[in-house]
Design brief:
Number of helices: 10
Largest sheet: 10 strands, mixed
Strand content: 15-25%
Oligomer: single chain
Bound molecules: adenosine-5'-diphosphate, magnesium ion
Distance between the termini: 69 Å
Structural class: alpha/beta
Amino acid sequence: GYHRVLEENRKLYNQVQDLKGNIRVYCRVRPSLGGRSDFKSVVDSIEEGTITINTPAKYGKGCRSFNFNKVFGPSATQAEVFADTRPLIRSVLDGYNVCIFAYGQTGSGKTHTMTGPKDLTETSQGVNYRALSDLFNIAEQRKDTLQYDVSVQMIEIYNEQVRDLLVTEEIRNNSQNGFNVPDASLVHVSSMYDVIDLMNLGHKNRVVGATALNDRSSRSHSCLTVHVQGRDLTSGAVLRGCMHLVDLAGSERVDKSEVAGERLKEAQHINRSLSALGDVISSLSQKNSHVPYRNSKLTQLLQDSLGGQAKTLMFVHISPELNAVGETLSTLKFAERVATVELGAAQVHKDTPDVKELKEQIANLKAALARKE
Ligand code: ADP
Ligand code: MG
């Protein structure tokens, strides 16, 4: 028993070390939804971190392989997918900033991974629910040494407009400020019950914004942000971590000759914000001193959690159908580029009481000096 615990700890430690300072990319393949037994997937094989796609003649007939930190096949469960995400949740409680985002074309399974299917059960819960549940469990385990405070925000970015998804009459007057969306409600949560209530409210608000003809969920980015503060009960030091859980808009290229009006505007906004994300990532990988975070609302929002000081995980989703293979290949190429990004070591956010004391001492000495003069 003891050795197994040690072994588990070491494994976890290695995983955490491993996560330091680069962008992890996990690929997930959606199962075929038709339920046909003769279904032929474009995925030729999956081996640990390598996925091989059978490309049809149009894309140069043959096989093309892509390497990621991990590839989850169509039969991977929500629990299996989350298991490899766990060290990041621990990091948030240790004072790191974390960003987990889901990328892929519409229908490839982003919302399934982050939230779960429409008829949600405990086993089908996605990363968002599991992450918060883990967060509360770890906080509980640490309660003799650290006192944690957790609050959440939920927003949607549609056509470069940020919409607060947690607005109700009661909390509209909440005076606390958020991180990068200062106006979005920041709601304190102390249990999974609170979280589930808020997620339901967020989903309801999201649907209200959509019309019957226009389910815009695939054309907006949605983001659940979790702010964590942990006070060390002996030293008084405060750890601050923040986690963004992002379900991105569909990455498919919209044929501009086929859409007009609202749809064209939406498509342009999505293209622009996803390219801005790509630009930030490639600028980080080239270690440029200027990273163009301000080019889109999305990158502005993620600024503190996307960069050398943070830990980033991208879930890249693909569909197994032949008619989607063009998008699948461009998704995998984008993801491959992201996977090569190396960043500096992530940093903990910690205010120690010593600093506060030293500042006071300096102020006192200055005052004493001033009196002498
Ligand atoms: P996206 O958010 O990328 O547009 P969804 O998550 O809505 O895609 O997935 C499209 C459909 O496929 C949904 O009905 C969803 O429940 C289903 N689906 C996606 N991924 C899986 C999976 N891994 N297992 C079972 N069903 C899935
Ligand atoms: Mg979706």
